[in-house]
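Progress note, sequence design subtask.
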């Protein structure tokens, strides 16, 4: 029986899926992978049986706080013993979180507009944060598994596709298109949602 992939291996899947083969900047790649490692620890997730695709769902805020606090505390403890390494870890932590915080703050108005698009009503939903895959077909298989789990548990799934082409892709899994909003970085997010379906494909 194959062993489950480690969080570091899954962070590698995220890095390769979202950054491709760009190896020109080792520091940037390490910062990105470290951020993905922290996200994997803090977010609820689903993993393809092959270990080559991973889906991040909504963050579990206690985990996120613990992950962030833990990274700072560990850097501080190491710094108390070996100052240069401690400072290096603190700088790495800052490089991971400061750009994320700045982008998140700038995107707040657009996020609010996405939230007003839908889904209709105030029903609790499960947010699909991202889907990363390094094997052709694994991402689609993982989304099919997630859709089946959502049907069994009665989940309303919500996601923001990063462009219109991805929006069209998610239609095949039963998602409905709501509307699109321009983000501060010039990209477009398409708000989509999927109602739980019965065995005959009816909501």
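Output:
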């Amino acid at each position: 029986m194959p062993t489950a992939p480690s969080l570091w291996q899954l962070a590698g899947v995220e890095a390769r899926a979202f950054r491709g083969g760009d190896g020109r900047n080792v520091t940037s790649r390490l910062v990105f992978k470290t951020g993905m490692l922290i996200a994997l620890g803090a977010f609820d997730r689903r993993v393809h049986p092959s270990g080559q695709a991973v889906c991040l769902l909504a963050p579990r805020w206690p985990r996120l706080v613990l992950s962030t606090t833990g990274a700072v505390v560990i850097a501080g403890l190491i710094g108390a013993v070996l100052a240069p390494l401690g400072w290096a870890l603190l700088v790495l932590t800052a490089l991971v979180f400061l750009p994320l915080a700045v982008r998140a703050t700038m995107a707040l108005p657009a996020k609010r507009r996405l939230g007003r698009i839908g889904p209709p009503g105030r029903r609790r939903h499960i947010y699909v944060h991202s889907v990363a895959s390094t094997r052709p077909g694994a991402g689609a298989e993982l989304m099919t598994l997630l859709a089946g789990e959502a049907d069994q548990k009665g989940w309303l799934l919500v996601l923001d596709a990063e462009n219109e082409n991805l929006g069209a892709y998610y239609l095949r899994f039963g998602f409905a298109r709501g509307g699109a909003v321009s983000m501060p970085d010039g990209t477009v997010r398409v708000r989509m949602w999927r109602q739980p379906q019965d065995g005959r494909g009816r909501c």
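DSSP finds seven helices and seven strands in the chain. Work on this subtask will continue into the next period as scheduled.
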